[in-house]
Design a protein that fits this description.
Oligomer: single chain
Protein name: DUF3445 domain-containing protein
Pfam families: HODM_asu-like
Organism: Arthrobacter ramosus
Largest sheet: 7 strands, antiparallel
Number of strands: 14
Shape: globular
Number of helices: 14
Radius of gyration: 20 Å
InterPro entries: HODM_asu-like
């Protein structure tokens, strides 16, 4: 483990995609080619498209339980079947190349072999034949990676959210948004429409060529490292936002939540694959990296009120900023 000023950094901190390069934050498209390594004050991240970490099995088990409990977290319009198979045959070779000790993928025409030792899975399947997979195709690929998955179809001069598996949403709902235009999905976000950010993002995505990969980061905060903060479960986690303010355990309970979002033009279907991987570390863990502690404290203190409200952090952001900057 790395150390900084006498503190030992866990692998989760060393690989954490700390998103702030300045002491203030505003929305932007902030896209860059992927994958590429980014150095940070704790180590670095970003050299792989699909990141597998020590939470792999537990997060996949949590996703499976959510899907069993709430089938609305997985949705696919009828015309998106080819895009799902395109996702499978795009991501499994990437996993096999990045983790050759525990995963392998071979393909001969439509016949494929997939081995994943981390899940004790060894299967043969035929592309386009769902009966050869252990579960329906979209759920299958979501059972192999920690990322949430959204698939955007391009037609009528726009992008449409027409399929996805979203179990770790940050206060939104796939069941509500599926079938919407890309611009409609981002309707509630403050400032981005006046500044044409979402319009420019859509234009950028529609120009992607088959196989091109880009990424961006987004962030918010979450109480108690809860991955599932979807709209559907708000009654379970919403009250924590107020309750945590006076809790002496606030530094351990409040987590900086960063999404690494990969954007890939699938080669066969032409759909846009949108991967959303959620990483979280607590304020206590952040405090082990002095540069991060100061920067996050300043970002929270300076963040405009409308942006804090949209991110759902307005109740506790002053308490968090005061703790970070007072240490």
């Amino acid at each position: 483990m790395l150390s900084t000023q006498g503190s030992t950094l866990t692998p989760s901190v060393q690989r954490f995609p700390f998103p702030f390069r300045e002491d203030s934050y505003r929305y932007s498209t902030n896209v860059e080619p992927a994958p590429q390594f980014v150095s940070t004050d704790a180590g670095g991240w970003g050299d792989r498209l699909i990141e597998i970490d020590p939470h792999y099995r537990s997060e996949l088990e949590e996703r499976a339980a959510i899907l069993d409990r709430d089938p609305s977290r997985i949705a696919m319009l009828a015309h998106m079947g080819p895009a799902v198979w395109d996702t499978i045959t795009t991501l499994l070779p990437v996993l096999a190349a990045d983790y050759p000790d525990v995963m392998s993928f071979t393909r001969e025409r439509r016949r494929c072999h997939w081995r994943n030792d981390l899940l004790r899975l060894d299967i043969n399947f035929v592309i386009g034949d769902a009966s050869t997979l252990p579960m329906e195709p979209l759920r299958f690929i979501a059972s192999q990676i920690q990322d949430d998955i959204a698939l955007l179809d391009q037609r009528e001069g726009a992008l449409w959210l027409d399929a996805g598996v979203i179990t770790f949403a940050a206060d939104w709902s796939l069941g509500f948004d599926v079938g919407m235009r890309f611009l409609e999905v981002h309707g509630p976000v403050p400032r981005v429409h006046e500044e044409q950010i979402i319009t420019r993002a859509q234009q950028f995505l529609m120009r992607l060529q088959p196989g091109e990969k880009y990424r961006r980061t987004n962030w918010t905060m979450t109480v108690d490292r809860r991955l599932d903060t979807s709209t559907e479960t708000y009654p379970q986690w919403g009250p924590d936002r107020l309750e945590v303010v006076d809790d002496p355990e606030l530094p351990k309970r409040l987590h900086l939540r960063v999404e690494v979002q990969h954007l890939i033009r699938l080669p066969q279907s032409g759909a846009i694959l949108f991967l959303v991987r959620t990483h979280m570390i607590s304020l206590a863990e952040i405090s082990a990296v002095p540069a991060w502690r100061q920067r996050l404290g300043r970002v929270l203190a300076e963040l405009p009120e409308d942006m804090a409200d949209y991110k759902g952090i307005s109740r506790y952001r002053d308490a968090a900023a005061n703790w970070l900057l007072g240490g």
